[in-house]
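S.,

Sequence below, as promised.
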Amino acid sequence: MDKINRKRVVVTGLGAITPLGNTVAEYWEGLHSGRNGIDTITLFDASRHDCRIAGEVRGFDPCDYITRKEAKRMDRFAQFAVAASKQAIADAGFVIDDLNAEQVGVIIGTGIGGLKVLEDQQEINLTRGPDRCSPFMIPMMIANMAAGLTAIHTGAKGPNTCTVTACAAGSNAVGDAFRLIERGYAQAMICGGTEAAVTALSVAGFAAARALSTRNDDPAHASRPFDRDRDGFVMGEGAGILVLEELEYALSRGARIYAEIVGYGMTCDAYHITSPVPGGAGAARAMSLALKDGGLTPDMVSYVNAHGTSTPMNDPTETAAIKTALGEHAHNIAVSSTKSMTGHLLGGSGGIEAVATVLAITNDRVPPTINLDNRDPECDLDYVPNVSRSQTVEVALSNSFGFGGHNVTLAFRKYQP
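The prediction came back faster than expected:
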């Protein structure tokens, strides 16, 4: 579609359930104050695990958003999605009714889906027999159910799907929703990512792959992106949701506009199931495509919310990719990893990090990378170490990269009438 015929798309609502708090306000306060959201695992007995730390969502009560009966028929990942979506819709002052329901869609990504339900039901199957398994097991487990249940609980009857691209899933969801609106297939979309994979089996699997930090005696300093002493990522859980609207539709109802989403780039490394391609060529292309899609040049970028996982391979590779995509300007911008505070939400990370990126633009404040005490020599950009920074943020990128070689970049900018 010709650029001139594309609809402009703006962000009008935000929702967040995170290890830093269960509202957008709590999440943002935690980010800009550099607060740690990682601690010892309480969701299961992790005493036999090599990794015993995570960024858990604490104090979350699904019954603040749905009935107890409904909550019992949802896995935690879907509860998070419905809750954050309801927050975002309320924040946008958006009413879904018979007049607009068919023009409002939902795309919510997840990397793993209802793993806890699967674990619990397999235990029942083995110990009590197959006839004791729950009839709700499958609809509680399948990854698309976060999007489906969000539609059921909000009345959104437009395009509805689920992205399952590992740790890029949340960003793919936002990007795909953006595309649907700009091409006229919807007037508004509820989109983002959710995950609740802090479970015994998931932690065991990632630990077996030597992907997780084992800094069990010091959880507050375990997630340390770009630091030379990093030893792996820390799992997190939660959901981040955005309400996107076609600009004229948002203006017609007097909506508050946080920012405009202008670009979406996605590529694949086609290299390895878990490792990024050396040099980060695929990630660099995703950033370049997002800039091109938004009619942006590298010198316009103020901030990059990095994928920044705190793993030995990702951080220098992403640094190289940023320098390839932005050239010399890469040394003039702020780059930070909010995973240093939340841990890595897998498929939910792109959702909460898109929320953080939009808030950085709205508030002209860049969140820090905490625990950055001894920078890796291969990571030589400005990672906003330990303390947030007040600065004008006109254009910001949000990066998400996933197992399988998925690379996604979203480009946001300050709204200009």
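The chain has a mean pLDDT of 97.

Coffee later?
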